[in-house]
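so the lab meeting is tmrw and i was supposed to have these ready like two days ago... anyway. pasting both below. for each one the top line is the aa sequence and the line under it is the structure tokens. i havent really looked at them closely yet so no promises
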Amino acid sequence: MEILGIVVLILLSYVVWRLRNRPKKLGRRWLAEALNQETTGGAILLVAAIAAMIIANTSLSDTYFTIRDTYIGFDALHLNLTIGKWAADGLLAIFFFVAGMELKHELTVGTLSNPRRAAVPIAAALGGMIVPATIFVGFNFSNPTALNGWAIPMATDIAFALAVLAVAGSKLPVAVRAFLLTLAVVDDLGAILVIALFYTLSLNTLALLASVAAIALFGVLHYKGYARWWNALPLALFAWTMMHASGVHATVAGLALGLLIPISRNEDKPSVYSERYEKTWHPISAGFAVPLFAFFAAGVNISEVGIDNLDLNLGLGITLGLLLGKPLGIFGGAWIATRLSRAELNPDIRWRDVQAIGLLGGIGFTVSLLITELAFRDSLSQLAEGKLAVFAASVIAAILASILLVSRGKSILND
């Protein structure tokens, strides 16, 4: 399996090298541009999740779980992981790398660069993390095992949420998308911090320092203009490997690397790195990394959640945390920020729009599934129930948000 791991790594490096610039052929250019659209990425993500749920409950389930649990890797580097773990630890690092670049953009030239405007979505994001977690804890306070999942309803799936907004909220002002994007990237940052602080089982300090040093060198190369694919990619892989070896979830490295990509304050002259990486890594994230993670994470054999093992409070804590806690926390956080400080809501956004954004925040999916796997890695029944609750709540939140967004769009047209 070590040989297979080496072959996969070489092939991945070659693919990245081939995609490092904007695709030149018409077909590849169309594909890359399509995958840069939130609607396409969200659709692929949903199809992958539904396919996994169907396959995991048919005669193909044994094949599905055998593939997911097959080990591939390098024993010498302590990276002999199952394919499912490679998807969660490796591919999601790409997703968080893209999220890190988006957060850096928001901090540099986006809504987060204006403190008064940034305060509202930041407060909304904080409220959208605190209230759902509180609801979950309220339901599961007396169950220490279930309590491990307190962070599950805190997360918002940026790809899925933006896809729903793009389809159902196309008539809404651009400011609404900016608000949701800002909220989602802050939410992702919060989720990564929670994973690093509360879901790290052990810590290898030397490996962590090696990862931090590699991340710092990665940033220096980019800010000095010396970064090339042949030095940046190996450095990023080394940073990821050492982060994984440290015991901290390896996706933290992806976010840190993304935050160190230079962003130009002059939008007429964008940073060559940010522009190139966005065109390269966003399609890979949206069309490959996140859907493949969803495919291996969402597959749950419903028979594993037997009636005798069903924990009603666990399911309710996740479901109500996402469907009720997210809208209340996001709306409440934004409202408190505008009332108790000098922060102001963008004039193009109505409070009705914030309600819809709150429901979109209830689409936890990708990161919620990741936290579910970390929280219940030792309990198959709780893991299965947690995934089903995340899936159901995310779909319901998407439907309710779509209804509200379409209604809002019609009212705009009638004004």
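ok protien two:
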Amino acid sequence: MRNEMEIIFDAVSDNEAFARVAVAAFVSHLNPTLEELSDIKTAVSEAVTNSIIHGYENLYGYGRPADRKKVHPGKVQVQCVLEEDVLHIRVTDKGKGIENLEQAMEPLFTTKPELERSGMGFAFMEAFMDDLEVESSPGEGTVVIMRKKLGTGSWIDSEE
């Protein structure tokens, strides 16, 4: 069976929790474990937060009040597809994009150290999901694609 959903929301930090819970609710009928739900929520949180803070540079709610900027009117799109017991998540923004994708995916690399960002967003997404792909073009935005098999076993067919 295939099921899908899509949400589009303003790129503001308050909506990160909404996205995280919406995706968790979408998979709830499969009775995921608490660990699976936590993994999914963390990965979605990281992807959406990256879109808001790095893609649109919307800093409302982050850092010192003097460092906060006007909110960019951008949108974040989260699409989810369930195919049997595999969850596909796509987080898209039309923000500034990533100049050096390879460098951005290195653990501990951050372009916002003043906000006490750890630079572990992509590393967490990769660790908590079964598959991660990132596509980005400077000036055009970023797409993060994640997959996770719910239940036991790998979502990738393995040869015995």
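from a quick look at the 2nd one: The first helix runs from residue 14 to 27. The first strand starts at residue 2 and ends at 10. will dig more after coffe
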